[in-house]
Amino acid sequence: MKNWLSRQKTDVKNERGQTVILVSLMIVSFLMFFSFALNTGLLINAKISVQTAADAAAYAGAATQARQLNAISYLNYDMRRQFKKFLFRYVYVGSFAGPRFPQTSSGATSGQYDFPKLDHSTSAAGTMLGIKAPVVCIPITSSGSPNDSCTQINVRNTAFDVQSSIGSALGSLNAITQAYVDGVIGIGNVQNRICNGQGSVNLFVLMAWLFRANVDNTDLTNFLEKVLTQNNLAAAEKAQILTNVGPLVKGLGLYPRNILNLMRINTLKTFINEKPTTVTQDEVLSLEKSTGADAHERTILAFKSALANLNASIFDADKLSMQELQPENMIALEDVHTTFNVYVQAMEAPAPGATLNPNDPVLCNSKIYAFEAKQAPVGVKRIPIAGKNVTYAVKLRAFVKPRGLLFAPGSGSLELDAIAGAKPFGSRIGPASNGPADWIKTISGIPSINGASVCASPPCNSPFISIGANSDFFSIDFLTELNARAKNGGSMPTVQGIVNAQRHAMAPNPEEVGLYNILPPPPEKESDMDFQFIPYSDSVSKADAAKGNPQVYRFYAPLYPDSANDTSQKVKSALDAVFGALNPMGNNSYGMSLPTIRDKVNDNLNAYISGPMRSGNQVENAETETFAAIELPMADLEKSKGKPFWLTESNQVLSSWSPEHNKISGYEVKFTPRFSYSVKLVAIRDLLHQGVSSEDADMETLSH
Questions:
Q1: What region, left, alpha or beta, does residue 300 occupy, with left being phi > 0 and alpha being psi -120 to 50 degrees?
Q2: What is the pTM of this model?
């Protein structure tokens, strides 16, 4: 017993094994620190993943907004181009038939063209009048020869003069003389029919340029057939008129085309102003399947970008949620309309067999009437909203999967948040200052015709824009340049030549640089894409050019946000916005009711949308309800030969940021110029403080 106790005392005093405890504590501490460091790293990585996903979501949402702003800007410029197309037709095509075009009555070769008319009401020789405003007169004689009747007004009845002179000289007519006089009278009757038909064609062409709402030539042919038959024109004469007039009125008129453009612009505006929401993966899948998915494109793409950039091994995708933080109604647009007079040469011949007044032997009594085009749609302008700019911001909330972190049981309840913001920048949708007066010119010095004022009501406002280099659509130099292209080396304009001249008349000009976002032509080679941001495709450009068709850019711009909406109601709303209250308008000089014109445009536009647009046939440039299709403004332009009426090089119309507009903290930042809006991430504090600083070089904030 004593020995056993002695041995126990010895064992107690033995210090072997004490380090095990210390080592165990150290190992435990090391594991704790290791797991802490590892979890901290994993947590930081998870946080970075969430922030990256949020950044991607913000960028994707802002990129969608940028694309929508670009589409608005392209459509806005196309509205201006459509106005220039109408101007070309009205100013050039409506006047080129005269053999003196484009020379003034005084023979001057500079300054404004005065659209001269030779008035025979006072004498057989006539008096040259400077009308000062374009007057539509389309030749109905054979092509290839000038039609002097478009320059002459109040033409004397030569048959009456011959008959009177012979009768007074002979006292009585023998059979030979009577046969001669009958022949002269027969010629006069043909002239009578042409005179009446000429006036009808003139008015029809003007109405087509303004209001034609289809591209099917069946209606055109039927209408002309009816008009010309009423004037007893021979079959050969009618066939020639149909051949001549058809190409001159090709395509939609100014009002219908720009009403469609406005419908697309307003749809895109609603997309940008779409109410912010909070979504999960299931809700995004539901939005994609809904009929209004296009209105939620920003939200859908932002969430999908977030999901694609989230670390799927750590986070549970089913629990991911995204809250949009940007304000509602970030962009406001105002439709720009203008009212102007357009003039047309109406003609009235004496009825066949009518007794002529010896004191007024006028064969073709010409009158120049003013048609008042009310509220013509020409564009949109952006209205600043205090404290709001187009931005996109999100708050992303992600949940870590169970065991997403080491040694952290129950970590599936751990949530991580991230906030990010981005904004479109670097371009503009159109001029900051844009109003009705920018599209008209008051014409002074218009003489009275037959004692009546040409103007429908004072002042005599005519459609008009400046084109740069101290020129405008009425200048002789400009009309001479267009005339050279229309003649294409020949003595008379050809159909293809007129198309070529129209392309140049619609081309970008110096007055538009910096004010509009202008599409460049497709690049010839890949290296030319350095300064471009436009997704062209060969199927859109080169194939069209090879077929002789205009090169077209197609892009997503629906007519209305929900394809299930009633087309007729959307068209009615668009027409109401253009025409406004119709009753006070009354009738114009021709006795045509504007409400009647509006109803006809309404019917034809509905038929155009619900028929050809949905079938893909008989539409301009293969446009659809969903996709806009506009001709590229700079495609196939000839050089202007030293006269800067139109711009022919892409770098002349760069509409995005350029070096002279980019200065930060006193030094110049060298950005490569581009077309259109781009996107950049921005700090949330900047978004909270109205988003745009003077350093953004945002074209919307610059004066030009």
A1: alpha
A2: 0.85
